[in-house]
Amino acid sequence: MDDYPQILHHGGAAGVTGSCHRLQIAPDRALLIDCGLFQGQDADHLDSLEQHTVRFPVDDILALVVTHVHIDHIGRLPYLLAAGYKGPILCSLPSARLLPLVIEDALKIGFTRDRALIERFLEEVESRLVAIDYKTWHTVIDDERHRLRVKLQRAGHILGSAYVEVESEEVDSLDKQIGQAQRTLFSGDLGAPHAPLLPAPKPPYRADVLVLESTYGDRRHEDRLHRRGRLKAAIDRALENGGTVVIPAFSIGRTQELLYELEG
Predict the structure, then answer these.
(1) HSE of 133 in the Cβ direction (CA atoms, 13 Å)?
(2) Measured distance CA(146)–CA(142) in Å, rounded
(3) How far apart are the first and last CA of the chain?
């Protein structure tokens, strides 16, 4: 079993959207981290069917772990269930509260406005949700072949966001460990330090393998003080000119930060 665990990417590797990563611990056992929708340039070369189709096996997935509820991390969830996935959906408590709301909006915009169909799907999703406390190990499987557990740590990106620590080890029929337990870390989207509403993510104690998002890996963000100054200058200029300020922003995360700055 030297070839396992393996990491496969079903999105979020060649582009910045469609995050979906697979930790294969055996030929017939896997853990899925996120199942996001392709958007923007990542979706330009895909037709509607390709964009939504789940083109990977689902029968061997023990659990889906959701890092946060932005649509590029959960948008293919309806299609994952349609493909036959029947396991739990693990996430933080805030994400468990938000996920049905986000999926409901996504279904209305991109799939159907049939209320009965939407309600039936949301009931299915809510029955699968398992909310996990931060900093607490949750056992996915512990049997005569494998021990697999996950732990969520605050990622500081949006409410409920987490990076995921996964500890996997192979055991024999006598419940003895075979080899070294491996700890794999999936970062999801990480927040910047000094955010006004969320604590900054803290580094993990250890990781043998790190899967790290790098959307802004080659960029230095200006600090919050300068961002606030530029926002104030733009609003002041619009007021002086009798104009209007239009601010495109994600409804979860960025909008709350903007409101905080405006009200502050």
Answers:
(1) 3
(2) 6
(3) 57
* Per-residue confidence band for 178, with pLDDT thresholds at 50, 70 and 90: low
Model pLDDT for residues 89-137, shown as the tens digit of each residue: 999 999 999 999 999 988 888 778 889 989 999 999 999 999 999 999 9
CA distance 189 to 215: 9
As a whole number of angstroms, the distance between CA 167 and CA 147 comes to 8
Paired tokens of 237: 């200029």
Nearest alpha carbon to residue 17 among 64, 91, 74, 85: 74
Per-residue model confidence as pLDDT tens digits over 191-209: 888 888 899 999 999 999 9
**Does residue 5 have a cis bond before it (omega within 30 degrees)?**
yes
Classify domain 6-211 by CATH architecture: 4-Layer Sandwich (3.60)
- More confident call, 263 vs 71: 71
Tell which residue, 34, 256, 39, 264, has the closest CA to residue 164.
34
Q: What are the residue ranges spanned by the domains of the chain? A: 6-211, 224-263
User: Is residue 154 a contact partner of residue 161, using CB atoms and an 8 Å limit?
Assistant: yes
Cα(162)–Cα(153) distance, rounded to whole angstroms? 5
Angle at 46 between CA 15 and CA 121, to 5 degrees: 90
DSSP assignments along 173-196, one per residue: TTS-EEEEEEEEEE--SPPPTT-S
Q: Is 113 exposed, middle or buried (0-12, 13-18, 19+ CB in 10 A)?
A: exposed
